[in-house]
TrEMBL record:
The gene is glsA. It comes from Leucobacter tardus. GO terms for molecular function: glutaminase activity. Substrate binds at S64, N113, E157, N164, Y188, Y240, V258. This is Glutaminase. The keyword Hydrolase applies. Its EC number is 3.5.1.2. Keywords: Acetylation, Hydrolase. The lineage of its organism: Bacteria, Bacillati, Actinomycetota, Actinomycetes, Micrococcales. Belongs to the glutaminase family. Homotetramer.
Length: 307
């Protein structure tokens, strides 16, 4: 029997597709040139079954969605205490590229650039390439397939990385960066340039939602304890300075990226994802936010609402 979920997801897309507000991220030259029209939505069950509609199998760069997963990897490899010594877990209420340092010299949280660069530096490995290889292996394990890098977007961002290099230098000066600034930023930008599809993101979300077991391969990639911690930080910090709006309207842990993707994880229930490149003023995809709001409402996913 054909699942009713498929036409439902199609209906979610159709109700939002007419929205053309928002703008492409233009601070990375290559990102400013992507097609703004694609729109995909996907959900992944904890048994690995996926449902998708629209452009859910079109690759795009993961960008900041990777931050949540690299954070999980850093905790797995270094332990939570050591990670917390370097990076806080307080929402910053600021833009993603804010030069964020708290009173202890740490970035406010791992979901903004400052914290994500510090997180990347904590991943085991001497060079940017070694650290990145660990990150790519982890992202691939969560997606259940071998992911690759968009080399032209990576080179384009590296060529305009002044602000991220500035952030990394300030962190290093305050002893909050466990690698040379150029190493941390080079690897962090490569991590942002990993190609994923909306369906991949839904499966990666399901990996967190299940407490750390990849739903298709059944590999346990992180402990339940770590998954719970990462989901908590995603809830309060995952949508940058729109985190408050997000928690009240959608109410599930999520992470967005300037490529237009959003990953969501409904603990113990499903992973979900949406993608469309035009962004609101916070750097979150306009259509993907709208799709997640609709899914949360229709499927009763809001954590703070009694279904
Ligand atoms: N690569 C981007 C940057 O560091 C990621 C930002 C994002 O997705 N918000 O600026």
């Amino acid at each position: 029997m054909r699942s009713p979920i498929q036409p439902y997801l199609r209906n979610v897309l159709d109700g939002i597709a007419e929205r053309r507000d928002g703008a492409l991220a233009d601070y990375i030259p290559e990102l400013a040139g992507v097609d703004p029209e694609p729109f995909g939505v996907a959900i992944a069950m904890l048994d690995g079954q996926t449902y998708a509609a629209g452009d859910a199998d079109l690759p795009f760069t993961i960008q900041s969605v990777a931050k949540a997963f690299t954070y999980a990897l850093a905790i797995r490899e270094r332990g939570l205490d050591q990670v917390l010594e370097h990076i806080g877990i307080e929402p910053s209420g600021d833009a993603f590229n804010r030069i964020s340092v708290d009173e202890r010299g740490r970035p406010a949280n791992p979901m903004i650039n400052a914290g994500a660069i510090a997180t990347f530096a904590l991943v085991p490995g001497e060079t940017a390439a070694e650290k990145f290889s660990a990150v790519l292996g982890f992202l691939s394990a969560c997606a259940g397939r071998t992911l690759t890098v968009d080399e032209s977007i990576c080179a384009s961002e590296w060529g305009a990385a002044y602000r991220n290099l500035g952030i990394a230098n300030i962190l290093r000066a305050g002893d909050a960066l466990a690698a040379e600034p150029a190493v941390a930023v080079e690897g962090y930008i490569r991590q942002s340039s990993v190609l994923v599809t909306t369906r991949d993101l839904a499966v990666m979300g399901a990996t967190l939602a299940s407490g750390g077991v990849q739903p298709v391969t059944r590999e346990r990639v992180i402990d339940e304890e770590i998954a719970g911690h990462v989901l908590s930080v995603m809830t309060t910090c995952g949508m940058y300075d729109a985190a408050g709006d997000w928690v009240s309207a959608v109410g599930i842990p999520a992470k967005s990226g300037v490529g237009g993707g959003i990953v969501g994880a409904s603990p113990g229930r499903i992973g979900l994802a949406a993608f469309s490149p035009r962004l609101d003023r916070h750097g979150n995809s306009v259509r993907a936010v709208a799709a997640c709001e609709r899914l949360s409402r229709d499927l009763g996913l809001h954590l703070m609402r009694i279904p």
